[in-house]
Structure formats: structure tokens, C-alpha cells
Design a protein that fits this description.
- The protein has helices at 2-25, 31-34, 77-91, 145-151, 181-197, 204-220, 223-230, 232-235, 239-251, 264-274, 331-338, 352-361, 373-381, 384-400, 411-433, 449-457, 505-508, and strands spanning 49-50, 54-55, 61-64, 72-73, 114-116, 121-125, 131-138, 141-142, 173-175, 236-237, 255-259, 285-288, 303-306, 325-328, 345-349, 366-370, 460-462, 476-477.
- It contains 17 helices and 18 strands.
- Among the domains are: 61-72 and 233-369, HAD superfamily/HAD-like (Rossmann fold, 3-Layer(aba) Sandwich), CATH 3.40.50.1000; 76-229, no CATH class.
- The two termini are 13 Å apart.
- The protein is globular, with a radius of gyration of 26 Å.
- The chain is an alpha/beta fold.
Length: 512
């Protein structure tokens, strides 16, 4: 009725006046005025976050990848991969000696970025296929927003046919999804930077393939395996916690299996370091050099048994025995021999495509994503600077979202300054995570392409496998009900801290 409309308009005018007074008095927000007294407790980096409801009581079988799942690696591994691949480019691919001057920069790239091979463009794309402006780089130099828009026909949008396919590899654009891709992105950017900086002509496709092959050679030639095996204390993290997780599951009668692309000798040495010489007794099935993701889709490769020395045996596999090691194989034979099917199986891995996608979409397994970056991002979210910055942006967004119409001042005068201030606040928030690309989970306001895949392909996600130690083996995870846009009350957005509300909540509580 007219009375309630008048009451609502008066409240909106009062709220708008407060915002304008704050903007008029200072360049940024006044923290004491913005954060409400009921700010929630901080997020726990050791928590497990649920995309889907799942009860561990129903899970009878636990499966694991090895690299970055059972074995977490220290960041000191990345510069060694970078340096070795850089030297391979120079010595075997005959790239310019000047590339050797580049060193690995751990703060340059983040996981989940896309690379346009034909444009030599490394960029961050959101869940709706839009490039986040300010996050496109050619080599080590940012590309102006106007140029990015021009490169894609006057839009920030990347059409579906150009995007990466199901496994992150499209005809011209690739997505870097695993943690090992961080040194690959850094090397690719450095090589492009050298060629552009010295005016050298090059074919973008050839350069991309050479860098990718050089990174692959580091793995194929076993260089990375040698470094880790020589100093496991230096490279392997959380080994005691991995042992605790596995032992606890076995003690509660759960079946365990391991499916990894890594070779047996490497896995064996790592598991002996973390778990002990009898580590195989914890697992019902161990499969190495599985060749994921084709392991999940290709029916042709049979299982091969390895002896104690890792040599291939010739006998036909009719059952999978505990304590034995198997190579290759395929998931269809695995399901037939074990009868482990559907939601009573929970598999953990770090690669959303190679480890989790097929298992969830094709086979109905439950999946858990290991995202080591989550721990750092949550610690940033918990900082006072982040909370104040995001609260301020929410306030400005609310003001811009149609509230200017309730003001008596001209809307054009009101809207420009909040837009500029919101844009400045977004850049500040982005830089808290990474100066070039921001958070791996969000663009300015939308989920990233990586984040959307994380939600689609995993029931649970966590920073490390050790997070399982914080929960009972019969615990039920309930995802929070996140309101859809049409379900949310008027300007009552919840921030990502879980229960922190927008400023001036008391003024808004009675408005519906």
C-alpha cells in the first residue's frame, strides 16, 4: 500500500544519505562504520566445503590419486621444474640463450587460467566465458582492455567453439588446470616475453608446443621424480597426516584403493616415506601408470601385474589382489572385478578433469577435490582488509542496483562516483590474492571458469587430505543454501565469510 511504499522510500533515502556522506568525507570506507557488530567468526582453512550433500556413513570405499593428493609437494619444486624445462628449450630445442636470464616468479600466475595459442594471450575467464578485464597478459606485460575487446570482435566473451573442450584442451585455447601447470605458464610467458622484447618472429603454435613438450620432458625423463626421491623431507608435506588419514579409514573398516599416473618406484618410495614399508597392506587395490583420464573412458587396455621389482608380468588378470601392484587397465574392468559402484565410492584427486569429471558424470562416484590454494585464499578472506574492502563494495553495489532512483539528486551525478569507487575497490581486493589475476575462485563478482568446474565435478573440496581428520567417519556434509538472485531479499547479500551482512543492516531489516 501507499504507506509501506513511503516507509520503504524513506528508509532507502536514509541509507543513500549515509553512503553519500561517507563518500563525501573520505576516499575509502570508514571501517568502524561499515562492519556491523555481529561479524561472524573466521573461516577455517582446515575445513571441508560441500557442493553436494554427502554422508560419509554411506561411503564404504575410498580412492585416491597420488600426486598432490596423498603426496602434497612444497612450492620449492616449481622453480626446479621451470629451470629444467627452460634449459631443455635452450639445449635441445635451440631456443635463444637469452631465455636463461629468466627465473621462476611464484607470484605471477594462478591455476585455472586460459591460454589463447594463436594470440599468445594468458587470461582469466569467468564461468560465463567472459574475460576478466585487467587479467590478460601477453608474455609478462598486461594487454590493455581495449585491445582484448578488439581481439575478440568487440566483446569480452569467448564463444563456446573456441573454448577448451571437456578436458581443458580446445582447438586454440587451453586451460591450465593442475598445479604442475604453474611453472608451465610462467615459462610460456617468459619465452613469449623474450621473443617480443627482441623483435623475433615466431609461430605461436610452435612456441606453445615446444614449451609444453619441454615441461613434459621434465616428467617423462624422470627429473622431477629424482629430485623428490633424493630429498623427500624437503619436497613432501603432511606425510604424517596422510598416514593418519589412511590408518583411520582402515581402522573403521573402509576399503582403500590408489589410481595414479605416476610410476611404481616413485610411488613406492614416497609411500614408504609417509606411511612405512607396509603401506600396500592399507590398500585393497593399487594401480600405477593408469594413464588418466583415458583410464576412465577407454575399455581396451587390460591390467598388467608388476612383480616386487616393478617388472611387468604376463599372466591374465582375473582378480585384483590386495598387496599387489597393477599397471594401466581401465575403469570398466576395475568395476567388474571389484563391484565397487556408485555413491558408496568416494575418490579424491587434485585435477578436476583428469581425476574427477568422468567419475562423477559417467559413473556416479562421489568425488573430493584437493585444492591446496584454498588454505591461502581463506587466510586472505579472513583478513580485516579483505572484509572491509568487500563490505564497501557490497554497499556500493547495492546503491548502484536501482537505489539511485529513490534519491532526490540526479541519478547521473549519484551513479558515477560509486562506480569509480567500486572499480577501485575491486582492484584492491583482486591484488590481495594475486596482482595479475586475483583469486582462482572469483573474477570481480562472478565465479571463475575454474570455480564453476569445481562445483560441477566435486561433491567436496578441501585444502588437503588431512582435513578429513577433523570430521567423524560418519559425518554428513550439508552445503549451505545459497540464495538464487530471485530468492534473495532486497539487498541482503551474504558475504563469503558465511554470515557477515551488508552495512546498515538494521536500516534495511524491515524492507521487503
Amino acid at each position: 500500500d501507499s504507506g509501506s511504499k513511503t516507509k520503504r522510500r524513506t528508509s532507502l533515502e536514509s541509507l543513500a544519505t549515509k553512503l553519500k556522506e561517507t563518500m563525501a568525507s573520505q576516499e575509502g570506507p570508514a571501517p568502524g562504520n561499515l562492519l556491523p557488530p555481529e561479524v561472524c567468526s573466521l573461516l577455517n582453512p582446515a575445513a571441508i566445503y560441500a557442493n553436494n550433500e554427502i554422508s560419509l556413513r554411506d561411503v564404504e570405499v575410498y580412492g585416491f590419486d597420488y600426486d598432490y593428493t596423498l603426496a602434497q609437494y612444497a612450492d620449492v619444486l616449481h622453480p626446479e621444474i621451470f629451470n629444467a624445462a627452460r634449459d631443455i628449450l635452450i639445449e635441445h630445442y635451440k631456443y635463444p640463450e637469452g631465455i636463461r636470464k629468466y627465473n621462476y616468479n611464484p607470484s605471477f600466475a594462478i591455476r585455472g587460467l586460459h591460454y589463447d595459442i594463436q594470440k599468445s594471450l594468458l587470461m582469466k575467464i569467468d564461468a560465463f566465458h567472459y574475460v576478466q578485464l585487467g587479467t590478460a597478459y601477453r608474455g609478462l606485460q598486461p594487454v590493455p582492455d581495449e585491445e582484448v575487446i578488439d581481439l575478440y570482435g568487440g566483446t569480452q566473451h569467448i564463444p563456446l567453439y573456441q573454448m577448451s573442450g571437456f578436458y581443458g584442451k580446445g582447438p586454440s585455447i587451453k586451460q591450465f588446470m593442475d598445479i604442475f601447470s604453474l611453472p608451465e605458464m610462467a615459462l610460456l610467458s617468459c619465452v613469449v616475453d623474450h621473443f617480443l622484447g627482441h623483435g623475433l618472429e615466431f609461430d605461436q603454435a610452435h612456441l606453445y608446443k615446444d614449451v609444453t613438450d619441454a615441461i613434459r620432458d621434465v616428467h617423462v625423463k624422470g627429473l622431477m621424480y629424482q629430485w623428490i626421491e633424493q630429498d623427500m623431507e624437503k619436497y613432501i608435506l603432511r606425510g604424517d597426516e596422510t598416514f593418519a588419514v589412511l590408518s583411520r579409514l582402515v581402522a573403521h573398516g573402509k576399503h582403500l584403493f590408489l589410481i595414479t599416473n605416476s610410476p611404481f618406484s616413485f610411488v613406492d618410495k614416497g609411500m614408504r616415506h609417509m606411511v612405512g614399508p607396509d603401506w600396500r597392506q592399507l590398500f585393497d587395490v593399487v594401480i600405477v601408470q593408469a594413464d588418466k583420464p583415458s583410464f576412465f573412458t577407454d575399455r581396451r587396455k587390460p591390467f598388467r601385474k608388476l612383480d616386487e621389482k616393478g617388472s611387468l608380468q604376463w599372466d591374465r588378470i582375473t582378480r585384483l589382489e590386495k598387496g599387489k601392484i597393477y599397471r594401466q587397465g581401465n575403469l570398466f574392468d576395475f568395476l567388474r572385478l571389484t563391484e565397487w559402484r556408485g555413491p558408496r565410492v568416494l575418490y579424491f584427486g587434485d585435477h578436476l578433469y583428469s581425476d574427477l569429471a568422468d567419475l562423477m558424470l559417467r559413473h556416479g562416484w562421489r568425488t573430493g577435490a584437493i585444492i591446496p590454494e584454498l588454505e591461502r585464499e581463506i587466510r586472505i578472506i579472513n583478513t580485516e582488509q579483505y572484509m572491509h574492502s568487500l563490505t564497501w563494495q557490497q554497499a556500493l553495489t547495492g546503491l548502484l542496483g536501482g537505489r539511485a532512483r529513490a534519491m532526490h539528486t540526479p541519478s547521473a551525478h549519484v551513479s558515477r562516483r560509486p562506480i569509480r569507487m567500486r572499480s577501485r575497490g575491486r582492484c584492491i581486493t583482486k591484488a590481495l590474492f594475486n596482482a595479475q589475476f586475483g583469486s582462482i575462485f572469483r573474477t570481480f563478482h562472478n565465479p571463475t571458469y575454474f570455480s564453476r568446474r569445481l562445483v560441477r565435478f566435486s561433491d567436496l573440496y578441501m585444502a588437503s587430505l588431512s582435513c578429513l581428520l577433523n570430521y567423524r567417519v560418519d559425518f554428513t556434509f550439508y552445503p549451505r543454501r545459497t540464495p538464487l538472485q530471485h530468492e534473495a531479499p532486497l539487498w541482503m547479500d551474504q558475504l563469503c565469510t558465511g554470515c557477515m551482512k551488508t552495512p546498515f543492516l538494521g536500516d534495511m531489516a524491515h524492507i521487503r
